[in-house]
Amino acid sequence: MTFSSHPRHIGPIGTVTRVLVWLALLRLAYLNKPAGLVGGVQLHDLLLGLLALPTASIAVGLLARRYSSGPLRFSGMAGMAINLGALVLLFANHYTAGAAALFYGATLLLAAWRGQAGCEFTLLSNVVLGREDEIGCPILTPIDALEARQRSQHPRDRQDAAPGAVDELQPSRR
């Protein structure tokens, strides 16, 4: 596994948004469910959300590595539309909604911690396989793009700004 340090690709708003959506998904996983193995979570939710969906994510990364020379980039409007369709299918189905909430919730929290932009579906394959694949997220991609644009316009706020770099927008304090 690749857990090396890497630069954050999301800002504070993207990080907080991921944590808040994680909390909402965690609540959704337990919402209106009879007693299960863990609170209201059923066995099939655990198996699908913590085994099958992560396995599918890594399988996509393995396929991308085999058939593509570089990282998978499916982050435009078409990528976001297809991703949104997959999310709707998973969350609209009573059988898979809890599992999807567990999977996406866990990957959202990991993405917030790692500072990784893009769709959380590719997060595990990126971590395990050392890849940088991206699939557009209809909710988070616009937030990440806005924050990235703001960071590029304000170099003093960037984490990777050179030490001692002078911001031309700040008045001189001489």
Can you put this structure into words, describing what you see?
Helices cover 59% and strands 2% of the residues. With 174 residues, it is mainly α. It has one domain (12-154). The chain has a two-stranded parallel sheet. It is globular.
Short recap of the structure:
The protein is an all-alpha fold and 174 residues long. It is built from 6 helices and 2 strands; from the N terminus they run ααβαααβα.
Keywords:
single chain, about 170 residues, mainly alpha, two-stranded parallel sheet, about 60% helix, disordered C terminus
Strand content: under 5%
State the distance separating the first and last CA atoms: 50 Å
Question: Which structural class matches the secondary elements?
Answer: mainly alpha
Largest sheet: 2 strands, parallel
N-to-C SSE series?
Answer: HHEHHHEH
Provide a count of the helices: 6
What overall geometry do the principal axes of the alpha carbons give?
globular
